[in-house]
Amino acid sequence: MAGWCTIQYLSPGKIIKLQDRLLRNFIRNQIPYNPFYYKLFKKNKINFSGIKTTEDLKKLPFTAKEDIAPTEKQPEKSLDFVLQPNKQLISRYASLNKKIKIIFNKNQLYHEYKPCHIHFTTGRTANATPVFYTAYDMQRLEESGRRMINVLDVSANDIVINAFPYAPHLAFWQTFYAAKGTNLLCLHTGGGKILGTDKIIKSIEGMKANCLAGMPGYLYHLIRTAKERKSNFRNLNLVVFGGERVAPGLRDKVKSDLASAGSENPRVLSTYAFTEGKAAWVECNEESGYHLYPDFEFIEVVDKNGERVNEGEKGEIVYTSLDWRGSVFLRYKTGDITKGLYYEKCHHCGRTLPRIDAAIERSSEYREFALTKIKGSFVNLNAFFSIMAHKGIEEWQVEIRKKNNDPYEIDELVVYVAPKKKANFEKLKNELKNKIIAETEVTPAIVKAELKALLQKLGMETELKEKRIVDNRKKI
Ligand SMILES: [Zn+2]
Fold first, then answer.
1. What CATH topology corresponds to 367-471?
2. Please, what's the largest Cα pairwise distance for the chain?
3. Of 123, 409, 432, 475, whose CA is between 20 and 30 Å from 148?
């Protein structure tokens, strides 16, 4: 297979050919080992050799989150997505060369197919879904890490601080393997909950760290705290967000705080990933979009009717694994809406990799919250992330509750706001109120909160993810 040096500059025509070939081999040689897709192909009367190109993928129905997520009745549903070859399947489906290799090399079989690592999805109320990696996949996780470091233009002597929460989640481990794969000096702090913000700030200063990676909400908190303490972040020139969507306006806020902490012209870039995709993608520049790995996955963007849209048109991101082992997915609907997918050469770095527009509405992140009924009308809670990016706000939390905590009472929408020191709260309050009414048609109560108390409510030092939107309505 062509190496990364070649792949990142392939012409669009060659990328299509490469993906067609990888998909064809993957479906013919691997998918028969996947219990879920084995059944799906049979049920829809599709031949494994009938999918020859990425165009042919259209014959396949989509895979939804509900197909994968474990339920009370089917707690082991996600295991059906793991490749599970057995002697019978191998002798029936493996191509001749491959068959000989596998049967006579048990170590190879273990390397390729035995799960050895798990990540979980981060849903709050739904049962977390496990995604399995084999040793073969771990090499690819490390390779995607090397690619990220390459696209981010981090140099070999840079010092990295990993502030992602220590958890069986892709963000932490992708960062771990990116550093390992490139031999970078990296302190894996485990985030606020493990090492604690104080020690992380001291480590950035003491180690003269150049690069800091973590969740956007937490890094904003960490950098603001460093600014208040007059810490010296002079060497920090790159901040990499991951793990969740970056609210509009957050980059600018972080940059301004970084400047106050002594960092000159810092780059603030973000990554995009979902657990099922098994690797993360990164921007080379703030406006570049996320650079994909065309030999690892095939991404298509579809409209509401499931039809593929044209280059640069808005739609849902749909993922297909190419040549992974362990858990694999075909035409998986992520629930994430992007402004577009681009195949033209990146204006910033010259790479020809396909790119996903960075403007992504991560409906899957707050799936259970994304559209909720408040006072009888549907409210898109994602709207708060852009409204609350207001310059006058230090921190915020939205609480949906019942009046007097009585389940039969009407809904109340309470927005807690810790304003910036110089902000005029009354003016801010009115502005927010008007914006929220315009976006959601619900009149909120806007309550001024002390920063320290609000940080505690958000769980900045105690939770894996801060509690930005809380639904405290008791179900009857
Ligand atoms: Zn680029």
1. GMP Synthetase; Chain A, domain 3 (3.30.300)
2. 75
3. 123
CB atoms within 10 A of CB 384: 26
The Å distance, Cα 212 to ligand 1 centre, comes to: 20
d(CA 308, CA 340): 11
**pLDDT value of residue 96:** 63
- Predicted confidence band of residue 409 (pLDDT cuts 50, 70, 90): confident
Ligand 1: distance of its center to the CA of 271 in Å? Answer: 13
Q: Encoding tokens for residue 210?
A: 């150049």
Q: Which amino acid is at 432?
A: L
**249 alpha carbon – ligand 1 mean position (Å):** 22
Q: Are 54 and 16 in contact (CB under 8 A)?
A: yes
DSSP state letters, 57-111: GGGSPPB-HHHHS--SS-TTGGGGGB----HHHHHHHS-HHHHHHHHH-HHHHHH
Could you tell me which residues are beta bridge partners of residue 118?
Answer: 132
Please tell me whether residue 197 adopts helix, strand or coil conformation.
Answer: helix
Tokens of 400: 């949906």
Looking at residue 55, its pLDDT comes to: 97
Structure-block tokens of residue 273: 């990933």
Q: What is the DSSP letter of 308?
A: B
For residues 470 and 400, the answer to whether their CB atoms sit within 8 Å is: yes
Provide the token pair at 101: 């290799």
Output the CA 445–ligand 1 centroid distance in Å: 43
Token digits for 252? 């600018």
Distance 148 CA to ligand 1 centre (A): 11
The whole-angstrom distance between residue 173's C-alpha and the CA centroid of its chain comes to 13
The helix/strand/coil state of 165 is coil
| pLDDT tens track for 322-349 | 999 999 999 999 989 999 999 999 999 9
pLDDT tens-digit readout, 22-37: 999 999 999 999 999 9
The pTM of the full predicted model, rounded to 2 decimals, is: 0.85
Closest CA to 278 of 136, 461, 182, 421: 136
Where do the domains of the chain lie?
Answer: 367-471
Kindly give the distance from the C-alpha atom of residue 289 to the centroid of ligand 1, in angstroms, as a whole number: 8
Total residues found in the chain within this entry: 476
Ligand 1 centroid, distance to 152 Cα (angstroms)? 9
Distance 299 CA to ligand 1 centre (A): 17
- Between the CA of 345 and the centroid of ligand 1 the distance, in Å, is 8
376's tokens: 């009888």
